[in-house]
Design a protein that fits this description.
Layout (H helix, E strand, L loop, with lengths): L6 E2 L5 E2 L16 H4 L12 H7 L4 H11 L2 H8 L6 H11 L1 E3 L14 E3 L2 E3 L3 E3 L5 H4 L3 H12 L3 E3 L7 H7 L5 E5 L5 H13 L4 E5 L9 H6 L9 H7 L3 H9 L15 H8 L6 H10 L4 E6 L2 H9 L4 E4 L13 H12 L4 E5 L5 H9 L5 E3 L1 H33 L12 E3 L2
Parallel strand pairs: 6-13, 7-8, 8-9, 9-10, 10-11, 11-12, 12-13
Antiparallel strand pairs: 1-2, 3-14, 4-5
Helix pairs in contact: 2-18, 3-18, 7-8, 7-18, 15-16, 17-18
Length: 427
């Protein structure tokens, strides 16, 4: 048998004489000229608020910052929903079912995000929804939110349960598009006075919320013992140790009070059940249509027959909404309801959507399916809790960036060109 000749090296180990020698890579110290282009330190940001917000790339990031910086009871009031919170989860799951259907070879160098809402221009298909007790989330409260809305060129709705007066909000941002949200109270005279004040202060539209005949069971608030204003109990005293700046701001600025009430000391549910009227009917909407000369929006519509009824009674727009899941648990999901609402009243009134909107891509999906615009609440409140007015601006920046990028990747250069063909809801 023929053998292959081998020889031994210095170690006595055989090696193939015919094999090529392996090159070795020598190490060296890098030259400064090679290192210098790689050294690009970020500018030092001395402002702690800007530092926090710069790291927030999504609304979920703002939520995480808000959770760290806000007492648990306050954060849970904003973040939570009714009972098992199924309505809230389903609203988010509906947007997770969205499947985009992009088109290619389209020029999307520039994207036009403008639209019209109630016949007037809006820089985005977006509005800030009414939220109660806003100064509880951050001491700047409604003033910060309306200023951020004005800067963004979008409408802002002040809640009946707001903590800054109708007149003070108007003065904080005279150029803003301001809507006033109304609940029908047992005291009809007080409600009439609010409508007159909003009209005198130059509010553009009235938003009648119709899905709160009684308070929903928000169990996080019950378990946290939340009161308005927050009470200094042993639990909240201990909480102050880890959220000192929040408590300092609460205690050293004007007392937390309502814009439309003299005072209140109790739970949110007790307040709602005492002053809201569960006997509201279509007659009250007819009265309001006569009393209010501007655009009238009805928020909280979840059935096509109700949509037809309120439009027949003079509503200029409806908001398909289940109150962010904060009232009736296991209620219908707004995004799923949207097509039937458009079929019912879309040719006679504007149809807006509220609930579960936490990204610019969500807004794109809703508008493509036919919504005129979306209302957001939690999204901007997370920003407010994370960094006051600048935090609300950051929320708008995030939503705008996501909206523009999604449209570009869809091959759409204008909000007006979004259509159902761009989206489908997976089963």
């Amino acid at each position: 048998m023929r053998r292959t000749a081998v020889s031994e090296g210095a170690t006595g180990a055989p090696h193939d004489q015919a094999g090529p020698a392996r090159p070795t890579t020598g190490r060296r110290l890098p030259r400064w000229s090679e290192l210098r282009p790689l050294l690009r330190p970020r500018p030092v940001q001395l402002d702690p608020t800007e530092r926090r917000l710069a790291r927030a790339l999504t609304i979920a990031d703002l939520r995480a910052v808000a959770r760290r910086r806000t007492p648990r009871a306050v954060f849970d009031y904003t973040d939570g929903a009714a009972e098992s919170e199924t309505s809230l989860r389903r609203a988010r799951q509906a947007f997770e079912r969205v499947e985009f259907r992009p088109r290619v070879l389209r020029d999307v160098t520039a994207v036009d995000t403008t639209t019209t809402v109630l016949g007037r221009p809006s820089a985005l298909p977006l509005a800030f929804a009414p939220t109660g007790f806003t100064r509880m989330m951050h001491h700047q409260g409604e003033r910060a939110v309306v200023r951020a809305a004005a800067a963004a060129g979008i409408p802002y709705a002040l809640s009946t349960m707001g903590t800054t007066s109708i007149e003070d909000v108007a003065a904080a941002a005279p150029e803003a598009r301001k809507w006033f949200q109304l609940y029908v109270w047992r005291d009809r005279g007080a409600g009439k006075e609010l409508v007159e004040r909003a009209q005198a202060a130059g509010y553009e539209a009235l938003v009648l919320t119709v899905d709160v005949p009684v308070a929903g069971a928000r169990l996080r608030d019950v378990r946290n013992g939340l009161t308005i204003p927050p009470s200094l109990t042993l639990r909240t005293f201990l909480d102050a140790a880890v959220h000192p700046w929040w408590w300092a701001n609460l205690l050293t600025t004007e007392p937390l009070s309502f814009a439309t009430l003299d005072s209140w000391h109790g739970t949110v549910a007790e307040l709602i059940n005492q002053i809201f009227d569960p006997s509201v009917t279509s007659r009250d909407l007819s009265w309001l249509r006569e009393a209010w000369s501007g655009p009238l929006i009805v928020k909280g519509i979840q059935h096509v027959d109700d949509a037809r009824m309120v439009v027949d009674l003079g509503a200029d727009a409806v908001v398909v909404s289940n109150h962010g899941g904060r009232q009736l648990d296991r209620a219908s999901t707004p995004l799923d309801l949207l097509p039937s609402m458009l079929d019912a009243v879309g040719d006679r009134a504007e149809v807006l959507l509220d609930g579960g909107v936490l990204s610019g891509a969500d807004v794109v999906a809703a508008v493509a399916l036919g919504a005129k615009a979306c209302l957001v609440g939690r999204a901007y409140l997370y920003g407010l809790m994370a960094g006051g007015e600048r935090g609300v601006q950051r929320a708008v920046e995030i939503l705008t960036g996501e909206l523009v990028r999604t449209m570009q990747l869809l091959g759409v250069d204008s909000v007006a060109r979004l259509e159902p063909a761009h989206v489908r809801l997976r089963g």
